[in-house]
Amino acid sequence: MKEIDDRGYTKLLSNKEIFRQLMTSFVHEPWVKDLDFSACELVKNSFVSRKYKKTFSDLLYKVKLRGRDLYVVILLEFKSAPARFVAVQMAGYIPDFYRHLIDSEKRLRKLPPVFPILLYNGKRRWTSPLNLADLIEGHELLGEHTLHFRYFPIIENAFTRSMLLQMGNIVSTLFLAEAHYDFDLLTSKILALVERAEDKEALSLFLNWLKQLFIHGRIAESDYHAFERIYQDKEEVNMLIESIRKEKAQLREGGRREGKREGKREGKREGKREGRLKIARLMLQRGEPVEKIKLYTELSEVAIRKLQQKFKK
């Protein structure tokens, strides 16, 4: 299965229920249980510098932690392979956000905590250092004055199929679809989600994303209106799954037919070329000049010279 682009993830994670599931299922920190998701708020501004726009997409949530504001930034890494210095790029995000707060809130006396998450859905294993200090040669020489910054990684391919099946929520099924693709298995998990999902909007958002991904491999910007459909019951979801099966089958059949047509076209092209080469060989045997052979066969001079070399041998 092809990887979905960053816009699809941005659309999904902009849903507060999906954000809640991401935090409670994949961030194993003791303070997560004290987050008040009923008051969480998606901050619209992006604080990714222009230099890294092609590397990262960001989502920034404000949520209450024991009555105080906590910001959670989710940086989406949509390169196919991990970048070694990603900790440097992520570390630069937080000062940019803090500068924005300082400029916009004149009465600010202290800065709020920011928890940085990196979400990676590439196929290669994540090997980049999590701590900025690990990228600095001889950092231990400076003691407490060295730079320390550590991001929290959520690496999809690090979770086994059994781990994701055990969680059984929307986000784990999303990761299952990308890291361990099995349409029949996903169908059963989706139907189980329908049985117990309380947030139909979040589930419908995921199902619409899944349909686009299954059929087209990625989601074009023009298709985002399809995300808005709400599925009310299991019958509607069964109809969706059946439509995906049919469309996938039609695409496979269309691909096979196109492959056969292309094979025939390729055969004809190869046959014509063999005919031209045969004529060129006869003309070379008669001592005809290269320019004349080019005119009669439409072969390139390079191809004709190669034939000449074979005759000389």
State the main characteristics.
single chain; 313 residues; alpha/beta; five-stranded mixed beta sheet; 5 strands
Mean pLDDT: 78
User: What general outline do the C-alpha atoms trace?
Assistant: elongated
Strand-residue proportion: 5-15%
State the distance separating the first and last CA atoms: 50 Å
The assigned structural class equals alpha/beta
Strand order across the largest sheet: 1-2-3-4-5
Instruction: Write down the secondary-structure element order.
Output: HHEEEHEEHHHHHHH
Helical content stands at 40-55%
Question: Topology of this structure?
Answer:
Layout: H1 6-13, H2 16-26, E1 35-43, E2 56-65, E3 68-77, H3 86-104, E4 114-120, E5 152-155, H4 161-167, H5 170-179, H6 183-196, H7 200-216, H8 234-285, H9 290-297, H10 301-312
Parallel strand pairs: 3-4, 4-5
Antiparallel strand pairs: 1-2, 2-3
